[in-house]
Amino acid sequence: MSKIYVVGIGPGEYEQMTMRAANALKSCDVIVGYTVYVDLVKEHFAEKEFLTTPMRKEVDRCELAFEEAAKGKTVAMICSGDAGVYGMSGLMLEIGQRYPQIEVEVIPGVTAATGGAAVLGAPLIHDFALISLSDLMTPWEKIEKRLLCASEADFVICLYNPSSKKRHDYLQKACDLMMQHKSPDTVCGTVQSIGREGEHMEVMTLKELREKQVDMFTTVFIGNSQTKNIGGRMVTPRGYQY
Amino acid sequence: MSKIYVVGIGPGEYEQMTMRAANALKSCDVIVGYTVYVDLVKEHFAEKEFLTTPMRKEVDRCELAFEEAAKGKTVAMICSGDAGVYGMSGLMLEIGQRYPQIEVEVIPGVTAATGGAAVLGAPLIHDFALISLSDLMTPWEKIEKRLLCASEADFVICLYNPSSKKRHDYLQKACDLMMQHKSPDTVCGTVQSIGREGEHMEVMTLKELREKQVDMFTTVFIGNSQTKNIGGRMVTPRGYQY
Do A130 and B128 lie within an 8 Å CB cutoff? Predict the structure, then answer.
């Protein structure tokens, strides 16, 4: 039976990949992925065959992976972060229905939420909600509802895709919605280029975050009512008495 | 300057650790942790000094780590999964205020949410909320509010600590709350002992989940309104047309 590994390679630098992910990449014949992610791993697996497709060609990329596997090759489809968090594992399993003879194994990785949290300190120690601000495939009303409900219940919130050229004011809109329930002084953090060259973190308040321009390589964290700024790091207490 | 690494070792099996985490463990003098987690890594780092404290002695464990570092040793404090998701990185940074001369570096790992998701298929592909059902340090009313708000906003929900001896009916209570907004036919999944001996997954409906007894080593996933059972795997679509 042919096999496809859907592999989360982690935030970027090679060391942040799990050993299981690296072993899957070593054992495969072909590595398929979005051009940018393939470039991140290429030097470590130079002897492999690489196939890439551009952004927004996700369906083509999955079909390419299944076609290669159908030839009898072992294939690894790589995703940044975790393959199962806004990644390709879902679409691979959906399209995989057409290829019942090909086994799909998902290999988890460190997603931007936990990778970025480690850079900031410990913002995600308690219950949190992960929300993508991209309305490419999700109606904005649904995103709005999730921002409001998560804020009302005092979740820590982590935002993926906080900005793009077309959506330059979405983070500001999101901050306004969250401030319906969260204090403007809520401790927040941003991490840019997690685990890559130029990694950069900042801790600020929610009202300061509202005025900030972030790029599409930034992950944004909004604390709960207990989150603190401890010496420039963002820390959400679990509740231990010390 | 003395240094403490707070290291997420992933779900359990050695291979699921990141290379960065393994390198930190290789480079340290002492490994500190909860007995069960220390046993998971011991054979791979046999030459190290190990110090353990039992469950519920988290503050003692952190202080032990700082005391060892204050002696000039490089210390690794290990946590299962990710150190920043219901892990020790928060408490370490809180207690670290008393030890300004000791640097704390957090190293992320694969948490049970993403590790378990990979076993089930792809339940966390879209916006999700992570909620612990443990009311040891969080009032039950707050947990209830989070379950209701997350369900109302159609988040995929992942539950940590779904059960214990004293809390045998908490998952049932949580299911009843979620069913105020989610259909009883919502696709759900459970994963027991992720990445360890006896790993076991099941996919079912929310009304079936309500009748299930799970143990404290189980992570529970409740889909959103779009989540599907594809050949026994739990898959949340991102929204791609294929």
Answer: yes
Measured at the CA of B181, the angle between CA B178 and CA B187, to 5 degrees, comes to: 65
Residue A108: CA count within 13 A, CB half-sphere: 35
**Is the CB of residue B101 less than 8 Å away from at least one CB of chain A?**
no
- The radius of gyration of chain B's CA atoms, rounded to the nearest angstrom, is 19
Distance CA A190, CA A221 (A): 6
pLDDT of A57 > 80? The answer is yes
Q: Are B156 and B222 in contact (CB under 8 A)?
A: yes
Residues 62-91 of chain B with CB under 8 A from chain A are: 62, 82-87, 89-91
pTM: 0.97
pLDDT tens digits for range B137-151: 999 999 999 999 999
Please count the other Cβ atoms lying within 10 Å of the Cβ belonging to residue A11: 29
For tokens 């390709």, the residue is A88
Exposed e or buried b per residue across A205-238, where buried means at least 16 C-beta atoms within 10 angstroms of its C-beta: ebeebbebebeebbbbbbbbebbbbbeebbbbbb
Q: What is the ipTM score, two decimals?
A: 0.97
Residue that has been written with the tokens 């359990």 in this structure: B12
Rounded to whole angstroms, the Cα distance separating B175 from B173 reads 5
8 A C-beta contact, residue A151 and residue B152: no
Measured distance CA(B180)–CA(B89) in Å, rounded: 35
The whole-number pLDDT of residue A45 equals: 93
Helix then strand then coil, in percent of chain B rounded to 5, is 35, 25, 40
Do B110 and A18 lie within an 8 Å CB cutoff? yes
Q: How many residues does chain A have?
A: 242
